[in-house]
Amino acid sequence: MSLESKIKKLAMDIGFDLVGITTADPFERDEEAASQRVRDGLMDGLPWYTLERVQRMNRPQILLDGARSVISLAVSYNATSDDNDNQLKSGDAGPQLTGKFARYARGDDYHDVIKKRLRRFVDELPDILGRAASTRVFVDDGPMNDRAAAERAGVGWFGKNTNILTPSHGSWVFLAQVITDVELRQDIPLKKTCGNCVRCIDDCPTGAIVAPYVLDNRKCISYLTIELRGVIPRELRPLMGDWVFGCDICQDVCPVNWKAAKGSETAFQKRHDFDAPELLPLLEMDDEEFRERFRNSPIKRTKRKGLQRNVCVALGNLGDARAIPALRKALVCDESLIRLHAAWALGRIGGDEALGSLKLAIAQETDPDVLDEIKITFAEWESRDL
Ligand code: B12
Ligand code: SF4
Ligand code: SF4
């Protein structure tokens, strides 16, 4: 068995679903594309995504002294019990108000799960090599261009939605890299493309895929619900539907994903109701409940405040009057970010009860941004009545 085959067998035995090898040469096309994206302002909102970082993430030799190869790994999170079944749940008062968490976030935090495997992999590597090796590992936690490495190592190809599509597991994969000083035979990139398909571009609700392979980060629901800390731009809120953490639309509509194999990692199996979480209990959680419910989950990243902001937007989009009592409470909570989005949601639901709560809130509200939001809402209703 060749050295490369032994390394790949080790990775598969440890639980990676796909593995490929590429050189540690710079990813030149990607560095140019990413720099252009930064210059065009399409990565705005991610202050850490600088030109300096773009350079480092596309030059593995800067990341590890003497780097010769990158071992590119992928793990499926397309867990067996999860069929994207965002079904309507029924209660006495009809279907419950549910939202959506992106599929990657329905189980345990992938950073922890995959990091453990990467450590095992690099610990066992010297036995195969017959010598010590210098390595550096990444799983979405440092300056490494994961997709560029996966493409060049033949793990998958770039879809027009910018995700790496793998022939066996579709795009439902996490990517991880091991940079090493060991010289290895490189794999050949796949000769696959999306062909004439443009489904993801057509179906993205916010128009975030502004051209094939180009995403405007600022419009992506994944950015708006996870990375953005402040107020969600008003014009984008109605386009976000019921997504409260991440978004999968450009992957759900992708034909390559329709036949994707299931992954075997039990840690990524969906937790109770994490495909279609009930929104009203989410809006009523306190910090303690949030910590308890989202322990070891990627969702803890938004903090309670961010998640409840997103829940308000989803409730506004659902437009169901049963959400009014919970939103009314949120309208007087101690976080102005939540109050502002609760005000928007009540305005979207409309009717005497919702607008009455907004009128009452004006008298007590002190935050100028929340007051503006309420005033805009009333102005909109008045112009509708004309
Ligand atoms: C920043 C970031 C985001 C940002 C911006 C995403 C983006 N597309 O730019 C936001 C918050 C929006 C985001 C969202 C998501 N992310 Co993210 N994200 C990252 C991160 C940290 C960096 C990505 C990056 O550098 N983007 C910058 C731009 C310039 O790169 P790019 O969009 O990939 O574009 C490349 C192509 O355009 C290519 N290119 C240029 N010209 C051409 C021409 C041709 C012909 C071709 C083929 C290619 C090509 O070059 C560019 C640079 O490589 C990576 C982890 C990492 N360290 O790499 C994870 C990562 C990309 N994210 C991941 C995931 C899972 C997601 C979500 C699916 C989560 C969700 N469900 O909500 C969404 C998907 C949204 C989407 N359609 O991309 C996975 C992707 C796995 C995969 N199969 O591809 C990664 C790799 C994390 C991981 N290690 O698993 N993400
Ligand atoms: S994740 Fe959602 S918002 Fe972002 S590009 Fe894909 S479909 Fe559009
Ligand atoms: S939906 Fe079509 S264009 Fe988009 S990534 Fe999938 S195959 Fe490519």
Structure description:
It contains 17 helices and twelve strands. It has 386 residues and is of the alpha+beta class. The chain folds into two domains: 3-81 and 106-180, no CATH class; 199-261 and 269-385, no CATH class. It has a four-stranded antiparallel beta sheet with strand order 1-2-9-6, sandwiched between helices. A hairpin with a 5-residue loop joins β7 (157-158) and β8 (164-165). The longest helix is centred in the N-terminal third of the chain and has 20 residues, at 110-129. The radius of gyration is 23 Å and the shape is elongated. The model has no long low-confidence stretch (mean pLDDT 95). Cobalamin binds at residues 29-30, 33-34, 37, 46, 102, 104, 139-140, 144-148, 158, 161-164, 171, 173-175, 213-215, 217, 220, 222-223, 227, 246-248, 250.
Short description:
It contains 17 helices and twelve strands. Helix 1 runs antiparallel to helix 5, helix 13 packs parallel to helix 15 and helix 15 runs antiparallel to helix 16.
Tell me the layout of helices and strands.
Blueprint (H helix, E strand, L loop, with lengths): L2 H12 L3 E6 L4 H12 L11 H7 L2 H4 L5 E8 L13 E2 L2 E2 L4 E2 L8 H20 L5 E4 L7 H7 L4 E2 L5 E2 L7 E8 L18 H5 L5 E3 L2 E2 L5 H7 L15 E3 L3 H4 L2 H4 L20 H6 L2 H7 L9 H16 L5 H7 L5 H14 L1 H14 L3 H18 L1
Parallel strand pairs: 5-12
Antiparallel strand pairs: 1-2, 2-9, 3-4, 6-9, 7-8, 10-11
Helix pairs in contact: 1-5, 2-3, 13-15, 14-15, 15-16, 15-17
Cobalamin (B12) binds next to helix 2, helix 6, strand 9, strand 11 and helix 8.
